[in-house]
Amino acid sequence: MTKTAPTQISDPVALTQTMFRDGMARLAGAVNIVTTDGPAGKAGLTASAVCSVTDTPPTLLVCVNRSSSAAPSFLANDAICVNTLGPEHQDLAMIFGGKKPMADRFASAEFGTGASGAPVLRDAVVSFDCKVSQRAVVGTHEVIFCEVVEVTQSEGGSALAYFARKFHELDG
């Protein structure tokens, strides 16, 4: 076995917000519509900042920008659903990622109600219906830990990913 010397980084550069964002654009992520409902009202947003935490108990985390129009509902409600999108949902991802009023967002697709009380996208690739278990503020975002209470999956199909600031279809 041949050993190679570790790569040396010469002259470290101070990390800027632009450098970080450009680097994150190269980190592929599933495209999700995250929804909530409860005392603070119904809201939804498009997010790729979602990931698995543990399977015991089944837990996801979702990051929500505290200055977004949807934030007040997400910061107060305890029911959240992560709806993973397929390629046919690109327009819906743009609607939930834009500035449309919440009522118009939800009128753009068919939603049911999950066991938690959160809206569940009827034709999502997979939906993780959750109850909030913990929250943490990190910089501009609220990190919401969500314990999964129900999973609903579609048969077959493809997934939608976001990479290099563009949507990409992933075949199953």
**Assembly type of the shown chains?**
single chain
End-to-end separation: 37 Å
Computed Rg? 18 Å
* Helix vs. strand class: alpha+beta
Q: Provide the low-confidence segments as ranges.
A: none
Task: Characterize the structure shown.
- By secondary structure, this protein is of the alpha+beta class.
- Helix content is 16%, strand content 43%.
- The protein has four helices and twelve strands.
- The radius of gyration is 18 Å and the shape is globular.
Quickly list its features:
7-stranded antiparallel sheet, 4 helices, 172 residues, alpha+beta, 3-stranded antiparallel sheet, 43% strand
Concise summary:
The chain is an alpha+beta fold and 172 residues long. 16% of the residues lie in helices and 43% in strands. The strands form three sheets. It has a seven-stranded antiparallel β-sheet. It has a three-stranded antiparallel β-sheet with strand order 1-11-12, with no helix packed on it. Strands 7-8 form a two-stranded antiparallel sheet.
Question: SSE layout and pairings?
Answer:
Blueprint: H1 17-24, E1 29-30, E2 32-36, E3 43-47, E4 50-55, E5 58-65, H2 71-76, E6 79-84, H3 90-97, H4 102-107, E7 111-113, E8 119-121, E9 126-138, E10 141-153, E11 159-163, E12 166-170
Antiparallel strand pairs: 1-11, 2-3, 2-6, 4-5, 5-10, 6-9, 7-8, 9-10, 11-12
